């Protein structure tokens, strides 16, 4: 269409007569309807699970734990950390827990969980549990968990998990707390974690 032919509204009116006005009035209403429909679709489309940057975080949960377990309530000496050999998280007064969840990545690029924070623990680390040659379960920090493009990462007992060290409050079954996960591509995502028995 030769837009240059329509130089002014007046000229358009002259060439198209009365028909121009109803059409012009209808158009803004139509645009508004489309916008409203898109807003409604967006609002209904979101699941209950956190979703951002293309990632989907499903069913975050954590083990129960106590802020001051047993006899170790006085071991606040940070130098204990040097001797912490994956089997005991000494050096912190609070107990431990771990967050588990499934992270799905429907996108075309791998993403990577690189860190996490929560105010219910003094230290948060990404861990992997493995069973050594003698059948003993061990765990230790890893630098991240890859969520492959078109795939998922399952953080679950006996595998990768988000370790909570030095609980600042008791985590009892039914409690909820928030945690923020840091992804290389998706950035920060905050989740609500429910405390339950494994
Ligand atoms: Cu751990």
From TrEMBL:
Superkingdom: Bacteria
Cross-referenced Pfam families: PCuAC
Annotated TM spans: none
Stored SUPFAM superfamilies: DR1885-like metal-binding protein (SSF110087)
Gene3D superfamilies in alphabetical order: PCu(A)C copper chaperone
Residue ranges that the Swiss-Prot or TrEMBL entry lists as coiled coil: none
Disordered, as annotated region: 51-100
InterPro entries attached to this UniProt entry: LpqE-like (IPR007410), Lxx211020-like (IPR058248), PCuAC_sf (IPR036182)
PANTHER family linked: BLR7088 PROTEIN (PTHR36302), COPPER CHAPERONE PCU(A)C (PTHR36302:SF1)
Protein name stated in the entry: Copper chaperone PCu(A)C
Source organism (scientific name): Sphaerobacter thermophilus (strain ATCC 49802 / DSM 20745 / KCCM 41009 / NCIMB 13125 / S 6022)
Lineage, uppermost ranks: Bacteria, Pseudomonadati, Thermomicrobiota, Thermomicrobia, Sphaerobacterales
């Amino acid at each position: 269409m030769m837009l240059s032919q329509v130089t002014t509204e007046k000229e358009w009116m002259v060439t198209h007569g009365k028909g121009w006005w109803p059409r012009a009035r209808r158009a803004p209403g139509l645009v508004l309807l489309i916008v409203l429909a898109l807003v409604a679709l967006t609002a209904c489309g979101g699941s209950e699970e956190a979703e951002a940057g293309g990632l989907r975080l499903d069913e975050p949960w954590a083990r129960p734990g106590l802020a001051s377990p047993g006899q170790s309530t006085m071991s606040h000496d940070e130098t204990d950390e040097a001797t912490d050999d994956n089997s005991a998280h000494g050096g912190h007064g609070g107990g431990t827990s771990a967050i588990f969840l499934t992270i799905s990545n429907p996108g075309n690029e791998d993403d990577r969980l690189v860190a996490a924070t929560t105010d219910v623990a003094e230290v948060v680390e990404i861990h992997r549990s493995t069973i050594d040659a003698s059948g003993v379960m061990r765990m230790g920090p890893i630098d991240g968990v890859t969520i492959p493009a078109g795939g998922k990462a399952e953080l679950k007992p006996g595998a990768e998990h988000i370790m909570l060290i030095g609980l600042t409050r008791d985590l009892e079954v039914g409690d909820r707390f928030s945690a923020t996960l840091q992804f290389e591509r998706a950035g920060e995502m905050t989740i609500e974690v429910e405390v339950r028995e494994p």
